[in-house]
Amino acid sequence: MLGSHEAMKRKHRHLRWLSLAGLAALLAGIAGCQALAAPWLMWGKEPTKHVPAEYPYLADKNVLILVWAEQDTLFDYPYVQYELSEYVRHALETHVKDVKCVPSKPVAQMQRQEPDWDQVHAATFAKRFKADRVLLIELLEYGTREPGSPHLFRGRISANVKVYDPSYGTSVGPVYEPTGGAVTVEYPEDGPGAWGTDDLTIRRQTMELFALELAGKFYDREVKVE
Fold first, then answer.
1. What average pLDDT score do residues 31-48 get?
2. Residue 130 main-chain phi, psi, to 5 deg
3. pLDDT value at position 222?
4. Where are the strands (E) in 124-204, listed by range?
5. If pLDDT is split at 50, 70 and 90, which confidence band does 42 have?
6. Comparing C-alpha atoms, which of 202, 135, 132 is closest to residue 162?
7. What share of the chain has pLDDT > 70, as a percent?
């Protein structure tokens, strides 16, 4: 009987060891899958890289934002200059140290009252609006429909961007233009919007994305490694 009792104890210890070993293997397997899928999970945050500002000289400045658009765009979106200026203003004042932007409403009013405003040098308006820099956004594309598919919503904004320093006068060109050329964003980035998404939502999200992308040219930032 004593031998039988000892044998039972050894069997229970063996089964318990197998259970613990199996559990450990299972956890190791799960951890291994997670590590393969996303190694950053082990450290609690995604890997990022440091991206320095292309033009860090908007900090501490008062910036005038001017948005230019073709007449066809203004016909479809009559408030695009004011709306896009507001999104860019918010992004700059949120991320660029101590920057201040001229209020968008009086600028948009000037553009409506003076339709030929774009025929003069952008730096000309700096004195009128008491600005240290002028940020000119020339819209090349602005829309909410997938090309060739008018029933599919997808926002796209593409623009040439130029910064003028009025201290150099009105005979000098921009002091900064983005390295990669036109600033372009699409929303959603991976394809048309979900069924039921409306035009206004797409426009707002696209303008916010564009504003953040543009503001990123003017301050040091950490971006996710793709």
1. 55
2. 55, 50
3. 79
4. 133-146, 149-164, 183-187
5. low
6. 135
7. 75
Give the pair of three-digit tokens for residue 9. 């104890």
Are residues 70 and 141 in contact, defined by beta-carbon separation less than 8 angstroms? no
111: Cα separation from own chain's centroid: 27
Helix (H) or strand (E) holding 221: strand 221-224
Cβ atoms 65, 102 nearer than 8 A: yes
CA distance 193 to 73: 21
The pair of structure tokens assigned to 108 is 């948009």
* Phi, then psi, of 62 in degrees rounded to 5: -100, 120
Alpha helices by DSSP H, listed for the chain, are 2-37, 71-76, 80-95, 104-113, 124-128, 199-215
How far is 176 from 101, CA to CA, in rounded Å? 18
Digit-coded pLDDT (tens) for 154-165: 899 999 999 999
> What pLDDT is attached to residue 46?
76
The two structure tokens encoding residue 221? 């930032």
- CA separation for the pair 99, 38 (Å, rounded): 37
Closest CA to 163 of 68, 85, 57, 91: 57
* pLDDT mean over 56-77: 97
Which range among 3-7, 81-85, 123-127 shows the weakest confidence by mean pLDDT?
A: 3-7
CB atoms within 10 A of CB 87: 21
160 forms beta bridges with 138
CA 66, CA 187: separation in Å to the nearest integer?
A: 23
Four-residue CA torsion sign, 178, 181, 182, 186: negative
Q: How far apart are CA 160 and CA 213, in angstroms?
A: 13
